[in-house]
Amino acid sequence: MKKVLVLGCVMVGMLLVSFSSLAASSDAWIPALGSFVLPGLGQLLNDQMDKAILHFAVGVGIGAVGFGLGWYFNPLWYVTPALYLGWAIYSGYDAYTVAKKSNFTLGFVENGVGFSYTF
Fold first, then answer.
1. How far is CA 88 from the centre of its chain?
2. SS3 for 62-111, per residue?
3. DSSP state of 116
4. CA–CA separation, 93 vs 65, rounded Å?
5. Distance of alpha carbon 97 from alpha carbon 109, whole angstroms
6. If you ran DSSP here, which 8-state letter would residue 42 be given?
């Protein structure tokens, strides 16, 4: 049992080291992940307020219209999650490409207390 625990700790440690080296090379995945979880969040991090509002509104609209009409037209109950997932993927991709193009980085401030980000 101890060998399995030690092996698990070593694997997690290797994963964290590889993840930290990936994160140090590029931080464009942060807006992409944010926008995949909540469409518009990545655009907000990229300082694109109009696009953030649009992506959020379309995401909410897909859910509201799809599930609202799903009460009357039953196949929309099955299509709506796929449409929302497609929109979330597109929103994440858009946030990633903009962050990559504008060299988005995330780091600590000089005194180590707060965050600052540049793009």
1. 9
2. HHHHHHHHHCCCCCHHHHHHHHHHHHHHHHHHHHHHHHHHCCCEEEECCC
3. E
4. 24
5. 25
6. H
Looking up tokens 């990936």 gives: 22
d(CA 104, CA 33): 13
3-state SS assignment for residue 58: helix
Q: What is the pLDDT of residues 28-40, one digit of tens each?
A: 899 999 999 999 9
SS3 115: strand
Structure tokens at 4: 């399995």
CA distance 21 to 56: 31
Residues of the chain where predicted confidence (pLDDT) is lower than 70: 1-26, 107-119
Identify the H or E element spanning 117.
strand 115-118
Mutual angle of helices 49-70 and 76-101, in 10-degree steps: 170
User: Which among 8, 7, 47, 14 is positioned nearest to 31, based on CA atoms?
Assistant: 47
